[in-house]
User: Fold these one by one.
Assistant:
Number 1:
Amino acid sequence: MSTSLLNNCLENIFTKIYENLYENYKGLTQNPRWLLMRKVARFKIGRAIMLFFFKRSSQSYLTFINESNSCFAEIHLDRVVNKLKTEGLYLGINLPQEMVQEIIEFAKSTACYGNRKSNLGFYYHQKEQVEKNLRKHFTTGNYFNTGLLCPAIKKLQNDPLLLAIAARYLDTQPVHQGNHLWWSFAGKTTYHEQSQAAQFFHYDMDDYRFIKFFFYLTDVDETSGPHVCVRGSHNQKKLSHLCLRKRETDKDIIDYYGIDSLVKICGKAGFGFVEDPLCFHKGIPPTHQDRLILQIEFATTDYNMQHDIRETSLLKCIE
């Protein structure tokens, strides 16, 4: 075994041990109900039992939604929901260009935080100089309090069509779990950095049922960090995927699901899609161009664990 392969293997083991310990610590100290969900929801029967006991009908809620007030035109609700049920993915929920520009301007005029650390704030144009000064490499630049600071994002999290899709798919009145706006920076990354930036195949465990809307805010091609989803994997996983919950290699995913199940998503700025994050998915590390992407998440329960809200007094910019 080569030295680099051995190092990657050891780094993989230590990363997984750390992630498990941190998840248990965070759940026990912040929200034990969230930790219980994380253990139970990986199994289909566990999700079914919990949803049976806590189900709230979506029908009465849907009657109050006026989809004509949506930012999105010519999106067929039934088609989206049916695709989500069968494939776990629907492509083509695209932002109006004026909204794209508003969010880009917000991102360029607001501090982001390196690798999601609240004490490592900088403006996007300062990134290279900050890295040089700190002798530190940033894989991501993440924004906080986006729904409070950016009217366009606030409008999206309350958009009638997105809420209707969520209600129909979740089969309940949806709750907004949170937003996430971030840069994925182009360049070389280590195994640990890719793992922290969700750049290996994995599936999320944010609730017993939940969905995420994604919007590219920069043009994304094969060299600038496309999102990859394994079509249909929300409904089918082998036992080791359920019990071990680790970052999976491309080979393991392709061997089990077949290469035709992998959907590599490229698109112009404004291109959007919705995904059941129980599907295996990953972001490919960008190599030539930074990627800016917005995520808006809805679920059946808000555990107060997924949001981007931070006390402004705790946010520090690098001087």
Number 2:
Amino acid sequence: MSESNSPVHATSADTTRWSRANFAEAIQGVQTPLGWTFWDHVMETSVRQAFVRMGVFSRSEIEPPDAVDEMFSAAFFGLPAGNVQTLWRIGESMPGTSGDAVVEQMFGERRPEGADKAKSSGKRRYPIVAVKLPMCTRWAAKTLRPILADQRVWWRQSVITAPPADYAAAVVQLKRAADEFIRVGSRHASMSLIGQGIAEQIEGLAEQAWGSRDRAADLMTGYGSMEETELMGDLWEVAQEKLSLEEFLARHGYHGPDEGNLASTIWREDPAPVKRMAEQYRVAKVAHPKEKEAAQLARREAAEKDLLAALGRGRRGKAKLILKLGKALIPMREVGKAGFLHAIDGARCAARVMGDDLVARGLLDARDDVFFLTYDELVAGVNTAQHAVVAERKADHERFKTLDVPQAWTGNPTAPVATPKSAETTALAVEQLTGIGVFGDEDVSGRARVALDPAAVDLEPGDILVCKTTDPSWTPLFLVAEALVIDTGGQMSHGAIVARELGVPCVINTLTGTRDIPDGAHITVNGTTGVVTIKAVEPA
């Protein structure tokens, strides 16, 4: 199959800027046709609904466009990427933030080339956004947690207790999963962008009060009761034999390695990673995450007190409001993420039931071949043999996995065959990397543990976790790691939010950390400057 016919490869105009940062965090790895066509449908629909509610888009823009370059995202060689220009224009349409701030926080990028022309028209919707944005904020904040509660019940019933019995029931569940994603996704998209705007305002307050943004992270920590800390708390209970593994999986089994990828195997299907992490908690004598939360709460309250004292009396009222909004709304990003992950696992469950049915009817060779059909093909019904189509798409999938697709590009990416990193390499390609400092006010040193799979790494006290990106299945390791170095993301990425909440020193968006840092190397991380210093691996 040529790339032009692949369901997971788009063709872009020469001037459109794309970035995989942030998207790689939520949608991991090279996507199968079902995985991407599901995501493409629900994500574009969710985001457009959100921006109509916020007033950024008119009602005429709610339907997804035909042109790839007008969409929010597309897949290239099976890897999802965000349209930087589109997100920049969104930021320019919103009072209280800017296109520059949005693309910096989402992608770790600067203003895309040619963006100035768009800037002149972005502010035309300010009056509409000024009216609709507060209403959208209240709507999303009020309804997100109740929707998540509903989805927990639906997921537990439809996936754990009584999964679909046949193909027809699985189609119903697959469509319901898409609807559930859109229901929570429109609110999640709203909260993500609103949260980014608030984070930018908080960073601005830090600069006004202290002359720099170095302490801004102290103002965005200790919020408490985040989804990931609940997950880690329950894992701690499993480690202490206070919660059964079965109940843990009934609560959190939708998580797992590459959980945003429909074709992945998650904890409810294979609980071995959960057992392994629980054992790490026992061996390392990890403290309950509530203790971390309490320490970070005290840190935030002290920083707020210092900030308000440093600001003039006339600016304190506005500052208090911004800080209050940050506490209420920034954690909502992770609530929305938990919601759409329930929907994804509902779709995953339905797909595997379909796969079993198609194998039984002789239309597929193996259960997971179902992931090489598209969402529309499965919903329409499959009544003829799909062996040739699947074989062609599988060959593309395997080839795409060998390619070195850049982190960001303009137009269409050039993707040569990747050069594998030798497991025996101890020589340093570089001695220093610079990313975005997320949290940490002093140097932290330790042994680098470079990991591509959270289930395949054993962290010891003092180890620094180096990874490409993180999703919630990685976060239990945050309690064990001395510090974090993450290849992709920005200040409002999942890994950054959770690192701040737990007070774990973190540098994000190094781009090449997993490639350039040898496993076992001694490294030093500064979560303020974003600098990672690398020393050679000690000889065995």
Number 3:
Amino acid sequence: MSVTISESQERARANRKDAGGARREELLRAAAECFDDLGYAATTVELIAARAQTSRPTFYAYFRSKDEILLALVDRVAAELEATQSLAGIDTTDPREVIAATMRAYADGVFANGGLVALFDAMAPVRDDVAVIWERMIRRTHRRYTAYLAALDPGTVDLCLEPAALVRILNDIIHHGAKRVARGSAAERERFIADQIRVAERLIGIREVPVG
């Protein structure tokens, strides 16, 4: 059976994606910087290739288009933010420590991605392909946080609202607030995180558990 050039190119591109590799990472990093600095509309394949110190043909060896590399970044950032809400690496069941750790991790995830989080927030309402990925991440993080609060011992917390409503408020505060201070100083970012943790503790109503 004959194989067309386009089919061969698609197979080679898929193999490179599966294999990962330094060149693909360089292109993703360059695209992230361009989107962050210039916005999506002003970024071109040529600018991404130049920022990665490579050529247009090399770009197309890894990605079909600017849209494809955008969606690869949306998927990556969404996965990173979702992973911050995992309790797998937290060696405590103390609600105060768990909430502090997950809120700090989420804020750090936003800080690490510069203006990309703001860009994806703006694009999701007008682009279905971005929304599918981005809104799925938001639903999953909300669902996980809601399930955690709902499962807490009533003797340890006094929730001011039912869990789902409270989670929407807390996630909006940390998500949008972190975007605003992402380019601030280390001290400003740390103060923001500390303030958000205190707000969460008050709204969740974490009780002091007597020792002994």
Number 4:
Amino acid sequence: MTLRISSVSGKGGAGKTTAVILTAGELALKNRRVLLIDADPRQNLAEWWKRCEAKDNVPASISLATALRQNNIEKLMASQEDNYDAILIDAPGVDSVVMDTIIDHSDIVITPIQPAQDEIKAVGEAAEAIATRTDVLDRSIPQAVLRTRITIVNRHLEEYRIIRPFVQNLSEHGYNSVLLDTELIERNCYREIRSGLGTLQMLEPSEPVLKARAEVNAFVEELEQLKKEHRGETING
């Protein structure tokens, strides 16, 4: 069965597109056929792809499509789902009918978060959007909250310390929100791939890259475990 993951956040710069690229690279490394769908009008994912093409770094086993309208997303999902092992969607940053459609076609919704008030607020807004659709669909769609760009400095911020209790509070109030154990540390290689160097797994395996790859592998394993735990689950049991 095709694994369908979307990356959703109303906060620009949270790491939404990077999370999609990292997930795609890890799944492709496991010989999965991956389709990326750029549904964000800012087209950051498509720009990354163009830079990869220009530098002859297009990753194997990964394809890209752009779909900015509801009917285009629905057509893509209907026509391509059987052709890929995983479909990853970079969602728009604003609430819309398109966002509802993306959530409807997701098994998991990733919401990246950095230690900042606006990003914490964006996690709550995404949780509300997911809950609204799960009520309509009567289907469990977990929100995987991923801490990104973590540093020694921002680990000491109050905003970092309240991330865990904030997500726990969402869960206790009926939202299907899970804080992933894996954190993505602030690393140059995560920025470098955005300049057209392909996926993280295509970089020269230096010590920093190997550390990053271990993080991403752990992150994707958590996503796959989350999918197994929620397979076929409905809200009303």
